[in-house]
Amino acid sequence: MESKKKSTSPKKTTALRKINWTVMLGAAFLMATSAIGPGFLTQTTVFTQNLASSFGFVILISIIIDIFAQTNVWRIIAVAEKKGQDIANMVLPGLGYILALLIVLGGLAFNIGNIAGAGLGLNAMTGISPKIGAIISAVIAVLIFLVKEAGKVMDRFIQIAGLVMIALMLFVTWKTAPPVGEAVIHTFVPDEINFFVIMTIVGGSVGGYITFAGGHRLLDAGLKGTKALPEVTKSSVMGILITTIMRIALFLAVLGVVSKGLQIDPSNPPASVFKLAAGNAGYKIFGIIMWAAAITSVVGAAYTSVSFIQTFSEKLNRNSKWAIIGFIVFSTLCFVLIGKPVKVLLLVGALNSLILPIALGVLLIAAYKKKIVGDYKHPLWLTISGVIVVIALIYMGGYTLINQLPLLFK
After folding, report:
1. In sequence order, what DSSP letters do the residues of 166-220 get, joined into one string?
2. Which of 81, 122, 211, 364 is the Cys-Cys partner for 133 at CB 3.0 to 4.6 Å?
3. What does the pLDDT average to over 257-284?
4. Its topology with respect to the membrane (predicted)?
5. How many CB atoms lie within 10 A of CB 404?
6. Domains of the chain (ranges plus CATH)?
7. Cα separation of 96 and 260, whole Å?
8. What is the pLDDT of residue 401?
9. CA-CA distances (angstroms) from residue 90 to 83, 101, 361?
10. 269 CB contacts (<8 Å, ≥6 apart)?
Protein backbone atom coordinates (compact mmCIF):
# COMPACT_ATOMS: atom_id res chain seq x y z
CA MET A 1 0.00 0.00 0.00
CA GLU A 2 2.88 2.33 0.90
CA SER A 3 4.65 1.68 -2.41
CA LYS A 4 1.44 2.50 -4.27
CA LYS A 5 1.34 5.91 -2.58
CA LYS A 6 4.93 6.58 -3.56
CA SER A 7 4.26 5.71 -7.19
CA THR A 8 1.14 7.92 -7.53
CA SER A 9 2.39 10.89 -5.55
CA PRO A 10 4.73 12.29 -8.26
CA LYS A 11 1.89 12.11 -10.81
CA LYS A 12 -0.42 13.99 -8.47
CA THR A 13 2.27 16.60 -7.84
CA THR A 14 2.86 17.06 -11.57
CA ALA A 15 -0.90 17.36 -12.20
CA LEU A 16 -1.22 19.92 -9.39
CA ARG A 17 1.65 21.97 -10.78
CA LYS A 18 0.04 21.90 -14.22
CA ILE A 19 -3.29 23.09 -12.78
CA ASN A 20 -1.53 25.86 -10.83
CA TRP A 21 0.38 26.97 -13.92
CA THR A 22 -2.85 27.10 -15.95
CA VAL A 23 -4.55 29.15 -13.23
CA MET A 24 -1.53 31.48 -12.91
CA LEU A 25 -1.41 32.06 -16.65
CA GLY A 26 -5.19 32.58 -16.81
CA ALA A 27 -5.09 35.20 -14.03
CA ALA A 28 -2.10 36.97 -15.64
CA PHE A 29 -3.81 37.16 -19.04
CA LEU A 30 -7.12 38.25 -17.45
CA MET A 31 -5.35 41.19 -15.82
CA ALA A 32 -3.28 42.00 -18.91
CA THR A 33 -6.14 41.85 -21.40
CA SER A 34 -8.33 43.87 -19.01
CA ALA A 35 -5.67 46.59 -19.27
CA ILE A 36 -5.20 46.25 -23.05
CA GLY A 37 -8.41 47.84 -24.28
CA PRO A 38 -9.36 50.60 -26.75
CA GLY A 39 -8.06 53.26 -24.34
CA PHE A 40 -4.70 51.45 -24.08
CA LEU A 41 -4.26 51.48 -27.87
CA THR A 42 -5.20 55.16 -28.21
CA GLN A 43 -3.16 56.43 -25.22
CA THR A 44 -0.01 54.59 -26.28
CA THR A 45 -0.31 55.89 -29.83
CA VAL A 46 -0.94 59.53 -28.86
CA PHE A 47 1.76 59.65 -26.17
CA THR A 48 4.34 58.06 -28.48
CA GLN A 49 3.43 60.62 -31.12
CA ASN A 50 3.99 63.41 -28.55
CA LEU A 51 7.10 62.12 -26.77
CA ALA A 52 8.65 60.01 -29.58
CA SER A 53 11.43 57.70 -28.31
CA SER A 54 11.28 59.26 -24.81
CA PHE A 55 8.01 57.40 -24.28
CA GLY A 56 10.24 54.38 -23.59
CA PHE A 57 11.16 56.03 -20.27
CA VAL A 58 7.46 56.29 -19.40
CA ILE A 59 7.05 52.55 -20.06
CA LEU A 60 10.09 51.74 -17.90
CA ILE A 61 8.85 53.76 -14.91
CA SER A 62 5.29 52.44 -15.29
CA ILE A 63 6.56 48.83 -15.24
CA ILE A 64 8.28 49.43 -11.89
CA ILE A 65 5.23 51.15 -10.36
CA ASP A 66 2.79 48.57 -11.80
CA ILE A 67 4.76 45.62 -10.39
CA PHE A 68 4.95 47.20 -6.90
CA ALA A 69 1.23 48.01 -6.89
CA GLN A 70 -0.01 44.69 -8.25
CA THR A 71 2.31 42.44 -6.24
CA ASN A 72 1.14 44.11 -3.03
CA VAL A 73 -2.55 43.74 -3.91
CA TRP A 74 -2.42 40.11 -5.09
CA ARG A 75 -0.26 38.88 -2.18
CA ILE A 76 -2.50 40.46 0.47
CA ILE A 77 -5.66 39.08 -1.18
CA ALA A 78 -4.10 35.60 -1.31
CA VAL A 79 -2.95 35.65 2.35
CA ALA A 80 -6.24 37.07 3.66
CA GLU A 81 -8.11 34.56 1.44
CA LYS A 82 -10.75 37.22 0.91
CA LYS A 83 -11.69 39.57 -1.91
CA GLY A 84 -10.80 43.24 -1.88
CA GLN A 85 -14.18 44.50 -0.67
CA ASP A 86 -14.31 42.03 2.24
CA ILE A 87 -10.79 42.98 3.34
CA ALA A 88 -11.78 46.67 3.20
CA ASN A 89 -14.84 46.00 5.37
CA MET A 90 -12.61 44.29 7.96
CA VAL A 91 -10.27 47.29 8.03
CA LEU A 92 -13.17 49.73 8.43
CA PRO A 93 -16.83 48.62 8.39
CA GLY A 94 -18.62 50.02 5.34
CA LEU A 95 -15.43 50.83 3.43
CA GLY A 96 -15.81 47.69 1.34
CA TYR A 97 -19.21 48.85 0.08
CA ILE A 98 -17.75 52.22 -0.97
CA LEU A 99 -14.85 50.48 -2.74
CA ALA A 100 -17.25 48.08 -4.48
CA LEU A 101 -19.44 50.98 -5.64
CA LEU A 102 -16.42 52.79 -7.12
CA ILE A 103 -15.21 49.62 -8.84
CA VAL A 104 -18.62 48.82 -10.35
CA LEU A 105 -19.24 52.40 -11.57
CA GLY A 106 -15.74 52.62 -13.03
CA GLY A 107 -16.06 49.15 -14.57
CA LEU A 108 -19.39 50.08 -16.15
CA ALA A 109 -18.03 53.31 -17.62
CA PHE A 110 -15.06 51.56 -19.16
CA ASN A 111 -17.13 48.61 -20.29
CA ILE A 112 -19.34 50.87 -22.39
CA GLY A 113 -16.12 52.07 -24.05
CA ASN A 114 -14.93 48.46 -24.44
CA ILE A 115 -18.21 47.45 -26.12
CA ALA A 116 -17.86 50.44 -28.45
CA GLY A 117 -14.28 49.39 -29.23
CA ALA A 118 -15.40 45.84 -30.04
CA GLY A 119 -17.98 47.27 -32.43
CA LEU A 120 -15.35 49.46 -34.11
CA GLY A 121 -13.02 46.47 -34.39
CA LEU A 122 -15.60 44.36 -36.23
CA ASN A 123 -16.44 47.40 -38.35
CA ALA A 124 -12.80 47.65 -39.46
CA MET A 125 -12.64 43.90 -40.17
CA THR A 126 -15.97 43.38 -41.95
CA GLY A 127 -17.56 46.76 -42.66
CA ILE A 128 -20.67 46.13 -40.54
CA SER A 129 -21.97 49.01 -38.44
CA PRO A 130 -20.26 49.53 -35.04
CA LYS A 131 -23.57 49.02 -33.18
CA ILE A 132 -24.23 45.65 -34.86
CA GLY A 133 -20.60 44.73 -34.20
CA ALA A 134 -21.06 45.66 -30.55
CA ILE A 135 -24.15 43.43 -30.22
CA ILE A 136 -22.36 40.47 -31.87
CA SER A 137 -19.39 40.96 -29.54
CA ALA A 138 -21.66 41.11 -26.50
CA VAL A 139 -23.33 37.83 -27.54
CA ILE A 140 -19.91 36.16 -27.79
CA ALA A 141 -18.94 37.49 -24.34
CA VAL A 142 -22.23 36.23 -22.85
CA LEU A 143 -21.76 32.76 -24.41
CA ILE A 144 -18.42 32.43 -22.60
CA PHE A 145 -20.21 32.66 -19.25
CA LEU A 146 -23.10 30.37 -20.27
CA VAL A 147 -20.96 27.25 -20.69
CA LYS A 148 -20.61 24.77 -17.84
CA GLU A 149 -16.99 25.53 -16.92
CA ALA A 150 -17.10 29.26 -17.60
CA GLY A 151 -13.90 30.00 -15.65
CA LYS A 152 -11.77 27.66 -17.76
CA VAL A 153 -13.35 28.82 -21.02
CA MET A 154 -12.78 32.45 -20.02
CA ASP A 155 -9.11 31.75 -19.23
CA ARG A 156 -8.54 29.91 -22.53
CA PHE A 157 -10.39 32.50 -24.66
CA ILE A 158 -8.45 35.38 -23.10
CA GLN A 159 -5.09 33.58 -23.51
CA ILE A 160 -5.71 32.86 -27.21
CA ALA A 161 -6.96 36.40 -27.92
CA GLY A 162 -4.01 37.84 -26.01
CA LEU A 163 -1.46 35.80 -27.97
CA VAL A 164 -3.11 36.75 -31.28
CA MET A 165 -2.90 40.44 -30.33
CA ILE A 166 0.78 40.19 -29.42
CA ALA A 167 1.69 38.22 -32.59
CA LEU A 168 -0.08 40.70 -34.91
CA MET A 169 1.36 43.67 -33.02
CA LEU A 170 4.89 42.30 -33.38
CA PHE A 171 4.28 41.83 -37.14
CA VAL A 172 3.23 45.48 -37.54
CA THR A 173 6.24 46.57 -35.47
CA TRP A 174 8.53 44.66 -37.83
CA LYS A 175 6.83 46.30 -40.84
CA THR A 176 7.47 49.83 -39.54
CA ALA A 177 11.20 49.18 -38.91
CA PRO A 178 11.45 51.52 -35.88
CA PRO A 179 14.74 53.07 -34.67
CA VAL A 180 15.23 50.57 -31.83
CA GLY A 181 18.68 51.88 -30.84
CA GLU A 182 17.32 55.40 -30.34
CA ALA A 183 14.38 54.01 -28.33
CA VAL A 184 16.73 52.07 -26.02
CA ILE A 185 18.93 55.12 -25.37
CA HIS A 186 16.00 57.43 -24.61
CA THR A 187 14.38 54.81 -22.38
CA PHE A 188 17.19 55.45 -19.91
CA VAL A 189 18.15 59.01 -20.93
CA PRO A 190 14.88 60.70 -22.06
CA ASP A 191 14.76 64.07 -23.79
CA GLU A 192 11.56 64.85 -21.91
CA ILE A 193 9.95 63.58 -18.69
CA ASN A 194 6.18 63.99 -18.44
CA PHE A 195 4.89 62.91 -15.02
CA PHE A 196 1.23 63.22 -16.01
CA VAL A 197 1.77 60.79 -18.88
CA ILE A 198 3.48 58.35 -16.48
CA MET A 199 0.54 58.51 -14.07
CA THR A 200 -1.98 58.14 -16.89
CA ILE A 201 -0.25 55.03 -18.22
CA VAL A 202 -0.05 53.54 -14.71
CA GLY A 203 -3.75 54.25 -14.18
CA GLY A 204 -4.54 52.53 -17.47
CA SER A 205 -2.38 49.51 -16.63
CA VAL A 206 -3.39 48.74 -13.03
CA GLY A 207 -6.01 51.37 -12.18
CA GLY A 208 -9.59 50.75 -11.08
CA TYR A 209 -10.77 47.17 -11.35
CA ILE A 210 -7.78 46.01 -13.43
CA THR A 211 -5.33 45.19 -10.65
CA PHE A 212 -7.98 43.12 -8.85
CA ALA A 213 -8.97 41.09 -11.93
CA GLY A 214 -6.25 38.45 -11.64
CA GLY A 215 -6.11 38.51 -7.83
CA HIS A 216 -9.81 37.65 -7.55
CA ARG A 217 -9.45 35.05 -10.33
CA LEU A 218 -6.68 33.25 -8.37
CA LEU A 219 -8.87 33.30 -5.27
CA ASP A 220 -11.87 31.85 -7.14
CA ALA A 221 -9.62 29.14 -8.61
CA GLY A 222 -8.38 28.13 -5.14
CA LEU A 223 -4.82 29.47 -5.37
CA LYS A 224 -4.56 31.18 -1.97
CA GLY A 225 -2.83 31.15 1.42
CA THR A 226 0.83 31.72 2.34
CA LYS A 227 1.91 28.51 0.58
CA ALA A 228 0.61 29.89 -2.71
CA LEU A 229 2.53 33.19 -2.45
CA PRO A 230 5.34 32.18 -4.86
CA GLU A 231 2.76 31.32 -7.55
CA VAL A 232 0.70 34.44 -6.80
CA THR A 233 3.76 36.68 -7.07
CA LYS A 234 4.87 35.06 -10.33
CA SER A 235 1.38 35.43 -11.81
CA SER A 236 1.16 39.12 -10.83
CA VAL A 237 4.52 39.91 -12.46
CA MET A 238 3.57 37.84 -15.55
CA GLY A 239 0.43 39.95 -15.99
CA ILE A 240 2.46 43.17 -15.98
CA LEU A 241 5.04 41.72 -18.38
CA ILE A 242 2.34 40.61 -20.87
CA THR A 243 0.88 44.12 -20.81
CA THR A 244 4.38 45.57 -21.23
CA ILE A 245 5.19 43.40 -24.27
CA MET A 246 2.08 44.73 -26.00
CA ARG A 247 2.85 48.30 -24.91
CA ILE A 248 6.45 48.14 -26.20
CA ALA A 249 5.38 46.56 -29.50
CA LEU A 250 2.77 49.30 -30.11
CA PHE A 251 5.22 52.00 -28.99
CA LEU A 252 7.84 50.80 -31.48
CA ALA A 253 5.26 50.48 -34.29
CA VAL A 254 4.10 54.09 -33.76
CA LEU A 255 7.70 55.26 -33.40
CA GLY A 256 8.53 53.63 -36.75
CA VAL A 257 5.71 55.58 -38.42
CA VAL A 258 6.56 58.88 -36.69
CA SER A 259 10.30 58.57 -37.43
CA LYS A 260 9.49 58.38 -41.17
CA GLY A 261 7.63 61.70 -40.99
CA LEU A 262 4.23 60.12 -41.79
CA GLN A 263 1.15 61.95 -40.51
CA ILE A 264 -1.11 60.10 -38.05
CA ASP A 265 -4.84 60.80 -38.39
CA PRO A 266 -5.95 62.44 -35.06
CA SER A 267 -9.53 61.15 -35.48
CA ASN A 268 -8.38 57.52 -35.05
CA PRO A 269 -4.65 57.40 -34.17
CA PRO A 270 -4.21 53.61 -33.71
CA ALA A 271 -6.03 52.71 -36.95
CA SER A 272 -3.99 55.32 -38.79
CA VAL A 273 -0.71 53.76 -37.58
CA PHE A 274 -1.68 50.30 -38.78
CA LYS A 275 -2.85 51.59 -42.16
CA LEU A 276 0.34 53.60 -42.67
CA ALA A 277 2.41 50.56 -41.69
CA ALA A 278 0.75 47.93 -43.89
CA GLY A 279 -1.93 49.52 -46.05
CA ASN A 280 -5.43 48.01 -46.15
CA ALA A 281 -4.09 44.75 -44.68
CA GLY A 282 -2.78 46.80 -41.77
CA TYR A 283 -6.24 48.32 -41.27
CA LYS A 284 -7.74 44.81 -41.11
CA ILE A 285 -5.06 43.82 -38.58
CA PHE A 286 -6.03 46.89 -36.55
CA GLY A 287 -9.63 45.63 -36.58
CA ILE A 288 -8.58 42.23 -35.24
CA ILE A 289 -6.38 43.74 -32.51
CA MET A 290 -9.00 46.33 -31.55
CA TRP A 291 -11.72 43.67 -31.36
CA ALA A 292 -9.54 41.23 -29.37
CA ALA A 293 -8.44 44.00 -27.00
CA ALA A 294 -12.01 45.21 -26.51
CA ILE A 295 -13.77 41.85 -26.12
CA THR A 296 -11.24 40.57 -23.57
CA SER A 297 -11.60 43.84 -21.65
CA VAL A 298 -15.40 43.39 -21.71
CA VAL A 299 -14.99 39.95 -20.14
CA GLY A 300 -12.43 41.20 -17.60
CA ALA A 301 -14.43 44.27 -16.56
CA ALA A 302 -17.68 42.32 -16.15
CA TYR A 303 -16.07 39.44 -14.22
CA THR A 304 -14.10 41.71 -11.86
CA SER A 305 -16.91 44.24 -11.28
CA VAL A 306 -19.35 41.49 -10.27
CA SER A 307 -16.68 39.82 -8.09
CA PHE A 308 -16.75 43.01 -6.01
CA ILE A 309 -20.42 42.71 -5.10
CA GLN A 310 -21.16 38.96 -5.13
CA THR A 311 -19.91 38.37 -1.56
CA PHE A 312 -22.45 40.84 -0.17
CA SER A 313 -25.34 38.48 -0.88
CA GLU A 314 -25.52 34.68 -0.84
CA LYS A 315 -28.15 34.75 -3.58
CA LEU A 316 -25.96 36.99 -5.73
CA ASN A 317 -22.96 34.77 -5.01
CA ARG A 318 -24.85 31.70 -6.25
CA ASN A 319 -26.01 33.54 -9.37
CA SER A 320 -22.83 35.49 -10.12
CA LYS A 321 -22.82 34.13 -13.68
CA TRP A 322 -26.14 35.80 -14.43
CA ALA A 323 -25.00 39.02 -12.78
CA ILE A 324 -21.95 39.08 -15.11
CA ILE A 325 -24.19 38.48 -18.13
CA GLY A 326 -26.54 41.24 -16.96
CA PHE A 327 -23.55 43.59 -16.61
CA ILE A 328 -22.48 42.89 -20.20
CA VAL A 329 -26.02 43.27 -21.57
CA PHE A 330 -26.56 46.56 -19.70
CA SER A 331 -23.23 47.97 -20.97
CA THR A 332 -24.20 47.03 -24.53
CA LEU A 333 -27.64 48.63 -24.24
CA CYS A 334 -26.03 51.85 -22.96
CA PHE A 335 -23.80 52.01 -26.03
CA VAL A 336 -26.50 51.00 -28.55
CA LEU A 337 -29.21 53.30 -27.17
CA ILE A 338 -27.13 56.28 -26.07
CA GLY A 339 -24.21 56.02 -28.48
CA LYS A 340 -21.12 57.77 -27.21
CA PRO A 341 -20.74 57.81 -23.39
CA VAL A 342 -22.39 60.89 -21.92
CA LYS A 343 -20.65 63.58 -19.85
CA VAL A 344 -21.50 61.83 -16.59
CA LEU A 345 -19.22 58.97 -17.64
CA LEU A 346 -16.33 61.44 -17.77
CA LEU A 347 -16.76 61.99 -14.04
CA VAL A 348 -16.89 58.24 -13.40
CA GLY A 349 -13.75 57.80 -15.48
CA ALA A 350 -11.98 60.51 -13.50
CA LEU A 351 -13.04 58.90 -10.21
CA ASN A 352 -11.69 55.58 -11.47
CA SER A 353 -8.14 56.92 -11.21
CA LEU A 354 -8.67 57.27 -7.44
CA ILE A 355 -9.68 53.64 -6.88
CA LEU A 356 -6.21 52.08 -6.90
CA PRO A 357 -4.61 54.36 -4.26
CA ILE A 358 -7.63 53.92 -1.98
CA ALA A 359 -7.68 50.14 -2.47
CA LEU A 360 -3.91 49.70 -2.22
CA GLY A 361 -3.75 51.93 0.87
CA VAL A 362 -6.48 49.90 2.58
CA LEU A 363 -4.82 46.58 1.70
CA LEU A 364 -1.45 47.80 3.01
CA ILE A 365 -3.14 48.57 6.35
CA ALA A 366 -4.79 45.13 6.25
CA ALA A 367 -1.38 43.48 5.76
CA TYR A 368 -0.53 44.48 9.35
CA LYS A 369 -3.76 43.31 11.00
CA LYS A 370 -3.53 39.80 12.50
CA LYS A 371 -7.30 39.27 12.34
CA ILE A 372 -7.00 39.54 8.55
CA VAL A 373 -3.62 37.98 7.64
CA GLY A 374 -2.81 35.94 10.75
CA ASP A 375 0.95 35.51 11.37
CA TYR A 376 1.94 36.59 7.86
CA LYS A 377 4.75 39.19 7.75
CA HIS A 378 4.46 41.48 4.75
CA PRO A 379 7.90 42.35 3.29
CA LEU A 380 9.01 45.85 4.33
CA TRP A 381 10.28 46.71 0.84
CA LEU A 382 6.82 45.93 -0.59
CA THR A 383 5.15 48.13 2.04
CA ILE A 384 7.48 51.06 1.34
CA SER A 385 7.11 50.73 -2.44
CA GLY A 386 3.33 50.43 -2.02
CA VAL A 387 3.14 53.64 0.04
CA ILE A 388 5.16 55.50 -2.60
CA VAL A 389 2.75 54.26 -5.30
CA VAL A 390 -0.28 55.38 -3.22
CA ILE A 391 1.12 58.90 -2.84
CA ALA A 392 1.97 59.14 -6.55
CA LEU A 393 -1.46 57.92 -7.66
CA ILE A 394 -3.31 60.27 -5.28
CA TYR A 395 -1.48 63.10 -7.03
CA MET A 396 -2.56 61.71 -10.42
CA GLY A 397 -6.19 61.34 -9.29
CA GLY A 398 -6.29 64.89 -7.93
CA TYR A 399 -4.79 66.26 -11.14
CA THR A 400 -7.31 64.31 -13.24
CA LEU A 401 -10.31 65.50 -11.22
CA ILE A 402 -9.20 69.13 -11.30
CA ASN A 403 -8.86 69.00 -15.08
CA GLN A 404 -11.94 66.88 -15.83
CA LEU A 405 -14.59 68.36 -13.52
CA PRO A 406 -14.75 71.77 -15.29
CA LEU A 407 -15.40 69.97 -18.61
CA LEU A 408 -18.61 68.45 -17.19
CA PHE A 409 -20.24 71.85 -16.68
CA LYS A 410 -19.29 73.48 -20.00
Report:
1. HHHHHHHHHHH---HHHHHHHHHS-S---HHHHHHHHHHHHTTTHHHHHHHHHHH
2. 122
3. 84
4. Multi-pass membrane protein
5. 15
6. 31-408 (1.20.1740.10)
7. 51
8. 63
9. 11, 17, 14
10. 42, 45, 46, 49
